[in-house]
């Protein structure tokens, strides 16, 4: 993610002089010379003003105290990247009147010139902050240390590309463009799953993910207006969200899928969520069969817990009829329809087995041929089983046609 800082420095260095400036002390050739831009004091100062990377690692203090290699790795990263900050929970135990008193501090540190941790902020907490789910607690703990008007959420398994980082300021301008009645509060960003080449199973999962983050979310954002936040590298209006409950909800069990509640929260408070596909962030997934099943199970169970939340209830009360139906299918409705599809396949297969073993299928088929009952003949065809599977893959196929062209998809 440090490509953002590098991109800002390069853009600042190139724009330090206008090519048409007649009073410029640099020639046009020198103005476009990018050699040594990372050493420019002006470019570095501009990058420091525009960008800070906050990594939230609640157990960094404990790891450092125990001299674990993970703490040494984090310290090395802070030394290499001067814009990197680490937020963690510091647990301090003191002995008062014969009793051990435990105090909790939320701290933000960076590396100083000597490579040591330099404390920037220290906030005393009323108690142990780890009350709910781990990831949202981590996010809520660190968001107070962010600065600026926009925050992009990045997971540990996400990566970036320099050419994509150059587009970030174009994306931030979307906050000031017209996207409907209300200004955007979450700018949706697509993901590129770069682990799709590991195996055929990984490739299929990557393709399904690609269809969701492109064609699927494009339609959810406009015209359906029911796109939420799905753990992708979306950019949040920081002032809007930090004054309205943050970007995550961390209650145990019910907030298993914590990311989507940021979208619920934004929509309930008259926010506007958009989707933009000219910029993307890489993502790596564990694409083993077991891990895919575990991930799908987590998403499905989290979706079931969402139905019990008051956020869903309030959205259902406030949405109009058509938007409510769209929202239903993007949450629990999708899994309900999938369940019906799976049950239908089971019933169809057991019915075919019964007809085959009992001999009733052959007699019914002969009767249908004699009476020329084409409807009954079509109903007995097994091809319906395969048509159901192909039907679920239609969004992926259409997405590939739009992204890569019909001829390349035909070769695949």
TrEMBL record:
Domain (Glycosyl transferase) ranges: 1-408
Transmembrane portions of the chain: 327-349, 384-402
GO MF annotations in UniProt: 1,3-beta-D-glucan synthase activity
One annotated GO biological process: (1->3)-beta-D-glucan biosynthetic process
GO CC term, one of those recorded: plasma membrane
Keywords annotated in UniProt: Membrane, Transmembrane, Transmembrane helix
Pfam families the record matches: Glucan_synthase
UniProt name for this protein: Glycosyl transferase 48 domain-containing protein
Species this chain originates from: Papaver somniferum
Organism lineage string: Eukaryota, Viridiplantae, Streptophyta, Embryophyta, Tracheophyta
